[in-house]
Amino acid sequence: MRIFLLACVAVIAIAAGAYAVLEEGLRRNAGDAFAVKGSTRVGDAAKPDPRGFLASQHQPAGGVTSGRSPAGGTTAGVQSPP
Amino acid sequence: MRHAARLLPILLLAALVLGTPALAQQPAPGGVGSNAAQDRGVHPNPSRAPEATEQQLMNVLRQSAMPDGPVRGNVYIPDAKAAVLVQPEGRTWRDFRVGPSRWTHAILFGLAILAVLALALLVGAQRYTPDPEGRRVRRFTACDRFMHWMTAVSFVVLALTGLNVVFGRLILQPWMGDRAFAAWSGWALVAHNFTGYAFLLGILLMAGVWMRHNLFHRVDWQWLRRGGGIVSHEHPPAEKFNAGQKLIYWVSILGGLAMGVTGVLMMIPTASLSVNGMQLVQSLHTLVAAVMIAVIIGHIYLGVWGVRGSFDGMARGDVDLNWARSHHSLWVERLGEDPGALARPGRRQPAE
User: Alpha carbon of B142 to those of A4, B139, B261, B313, B322: distances in Å?
Assistant: First the structure.
């Protein structure tokens, strides 16, 4: 009976330990899967905003061809993502 | 003409998806999102600009037959799987989860429970006559019992929380209600994911410690041919573990390793698996689980009730000498050369 209880405690301890050690990593891994950081298709040239937002999130019309927004990168009057 | 009508929505979908911008650019509430930017014609790669709005896409998806082939686009985030908009295998996977998967579980569990009931009601438990001097023999060390119980406890947690995925919506949700079921499922998922490491550790320990006792020999085939004497109440010769126990051992080890590998893969979304690969891994995970649970139902019955005196090995570490001679005669013969293996007479109470 003592060994059974010890095994129960061990299971809880291992699960809690795994949670403490791996949860952050797994959460980050899941987050990385959807993160702009690490993107392979969008380089810095496509992010004229110093905070790293894509040109598509700026108001000016027209495609980005040179790494700067065709309208000079202004974000006046546009509420960008935080 | 029919082909053209069928092709039209697919082309529309493809045109939209091929131009879908970074899905990672989540719009802030009330802020500027990718939709607004697209509406203004702004796109990091104009050649991939969408040719339809998301509303058009949703309308097509609602009104059209789903395409037979996959529809993929471009995403700028690391998870390339996010570029898959329509994956026909996903429908097969969904149908499998709500159909064959549930039926496979139900049939296997039903067969296991029927077999146990048949053994209990028609054949009865295998009893034994305790050694008159109360002599007992050590069967499992504390370490053996610890790793067995650790594996067993974690397996029960995993089985209950895993079955929630298979039957939860069918059985629990109508009874618990949506909110309680959602909360329970969230906690069950966390418990499942992290208890899995204790189970995997137990499986690895059992694989290392007990493997040499679980290799098959000629005597095991004889044991199997005689059905283990379960029905006839005979006692075919057996080593420390009989052939039935060895089969359970290998199902547990191989199945447990398969569960561990597939389980860890499912926890890592950036693993190098395609969407279809993730679905196959999940299907394998659940089918192996069904087999293991059915086998363990039989194992629990035989260990606790069907073979009287057997449970002592795991509960106390030693078993009655007569029980050991009856069920594991070859093992006791070998132990006869090791007097230390015999517990002192009268130290323990007889099992019955």
Answer: 10, 10, 28, 10, 22
pLDDT tens digits for A1-41? 899 999 999 999 999 999 998 888 777 776 766 665 655 55
Note whether B212 and B240 are within 8 A (CB). no
Chain B nearest CA to A72, separation (Å): 14
Residues 155 to 174 of B: which have CB under 8 A from any A CB? 157
Mean per-residue pLDDT over chain B, rounded: 81
The answer to whether A59 touches A78, Cβ cutoff 8 Å, is yes
Query: Percentage of chain B with pLDDT > 70?
Result: 74
Ordered DSSP codes for B265-285: HHH-TTSS--HHHHHHHHHHH
| Optimal mutation site among B23, B42, B74, B138, interface A, most CBs of chain A within 10 A | B42
CA-based nearest residue to B201, from B256, B274, B249, B159: B256
Rounded average pLDDT over B116-130: 89
3-state SS, residue B329:
helix
pLDDT in tens, B22-32: 333 333 343 33
A3, A15, A61 ranked by CB distance to B41: nearest: A61
| Mean pLDDT, range B202-218, rounded to an integer | 94
**Which of A15, A22, A36 has its CB closest to that of B195?**
A15
Q: Each residue of B256-298: pLDDT tens digit?
A: 999 999 998 888 766 667 788 889 999 999 999 999 999 999 9
Contact call for A80 and B269, based on CB within 8 A:
no
Contacts 24+ apart (CB under 8 A), B325-334: B326/B128, B326/B235, B327/B128, B327/B235, B327/B238, B327/B242, B328/B238, B328/B239, B328/B240, B328/B241, B328/B242, B329/B235, B329/B237, B329/B238, B330/B219, B330/B237, B330/B238, B330/B239, B331/B238, B331/B239, B331/B240, B332/B137
**Interface predicted TM-score (ipTM):** 0.74
